[in-house]
């Protein structure tokens, strides 16, 4: 069984899959940043839900503690952001091949701690695991992608905006 080493989330390491959230603010005069003694704010990312649709915020509770991964999912029309709130997650990602299947040579696993996050590019394959009983995450995604995935998971109807793919099982270490 192939092994995926879990690594800490870092901007350079996750760039093929998306944009890291939780980096320090830029101090080069960026127009979208304000730093002051009582508070700081800065733009991390301009989210693209795809057109024509709106972004939505989901509350997601992860409970899967199985440190093996045999299934990945990807969303075709939208970026998707995941931000852990109550504990760390292990987030497995892979790029897509030209025929929109997971490129297993690009599989990586990142530990994402509270105060960090990842905005995945469209077509990024992913799965999430936790090492504690439950972790709540904020997710930013496309409203129609959520509706489409819920219908697929409840009824088995074909998903139109997402894909789920069985892969050779990989163990997280």
Automatic annotation (TrEMBL):
Catalytic activity: (S)-ureidoglycolate = urea + glyoxylate
Keyword Ribosomal protein: no
Protein name according to UniProt: Ureidoglycolate hydrolase
Single biological process term from Gene Ontology: allantoin catabolic process
Annotated TM spans: none
GO function term, MF aspect, one: ureidoglycolate lyase activity
UniProt cross-references to InterPro entries, sorted A to Z: RmlC_Cupin_sf (IPR011051), Ureidogly_lyase (IPR007247), Ureidoglycolate_lyase_dom_sf (IPR024060)
Organism: Burkholderia lata (strain ATCC 17760 / DSM 23089 / LMG 22485 / NCIMB 9086 / R18194 / 383)
Gene3D superfamilies linked: Ureidoglycolate hydrolase (2.60.120.480)
Any Pfam family: Ureidogly_lyase
Keyword annotations from UniProtKB, A to Z: Hydrolase, Lyase, Purine metabolism
Quaternary structure, from the entry: Homodimer.
Top-level taxon of origin: Bacteria
The keyword Hydrolase belongs to this UniProt entry's keyword annotation: yes
